[in-house]
Amino acid sequence: VHLVESGGGVVRPGGSLRLSCAASGLLVDEWTLGWVRQAPGKEFEWIASSLRTTFLTKYADAVKGRFTIARDNAKNTFDLQMNNLKPEDSAVYYCVTGWGLDNPHRGQGTQVTVSS
């Protein structure tokens, strides 16, 4: 299994970014997938998870209503749409397998910086 994130960058507060996770060695519609983030000096923080088969999706309270995850089966990608970004959203974002912070696989991460 190999996960590669892209789409990070610098954005002003209130802006949007879309992160994409390209998966190999698995089919995105057959695995439980999610996103986590880590800010400097802090622990990993769970953002969202999408359960395989039912595609039940859960979001952390900190991002609920602002972030949306989506699977693209044709491209075999797992995306994170982030709207109304806040400075506290600044972190390295990782695409992961598994639910919550129970992650057998994790990508290399992509940096998101929200700053005016």
Give the helix/strand layout.
Layout lengths: L1 E5 L2 E3 L5 E8 L8 E6 L5 E7 L6 E3 L7 E6 L4 E6 L8 E7 L12 E5 L2
Parallel strand pairs: 2-10
Antiparallel strand pairs: 1-3, 3-8, 4-5, 4-9, 5-6, 7-8, 9-10
In short:
This protein is an all-beta fold. Helices cover 0% and strands 48% of the residues.
Give an overview in words.
It is a single chain. With 116 residues, the chain is mainly β. A six-stranded mixed beta sheet has the order 2-10-9-4-5-6, with no helix packed on it. A four-stranded antiparallel beta sheet has the order 1-3-8-7, with no helix packed on it. Helices cover 0% and strands 48% of the residues. The termini are far apart. The protein has strands at residues 2-6, 9-11, 17-24, 33-38, 44-50, 57-59, 67-72, 77-82, 91-97, 110-114.
Question: Structural class, from helix and strand content?
Answer: mainly beta
Topology as a string of helices (H) and strands (E)? EEEEEEEEEE
How confident is the prediction overall: mean pLDDT? Answer: 96
Taking Cα atoms only, what radius of gyration do you get, to the nearest Å? 13 Å
- How far apart, in Å, are the first and last alpha carbons? 37 Å
| Overall 3D shape | globular
In the predicted model, the low-confidence regions spanning at least 5 consecutive residues are: none
Secondary structure tally, helices: 0
Sheet with most strands: strand arrangement? 2-10-9-4-5-6
Strand segment count: 10
Residue share in helix: under 10%
The percentage of residues in β strands lies in over 45%
Q: Biggest β-sheet, characterized?
A: 6 strands, mixed
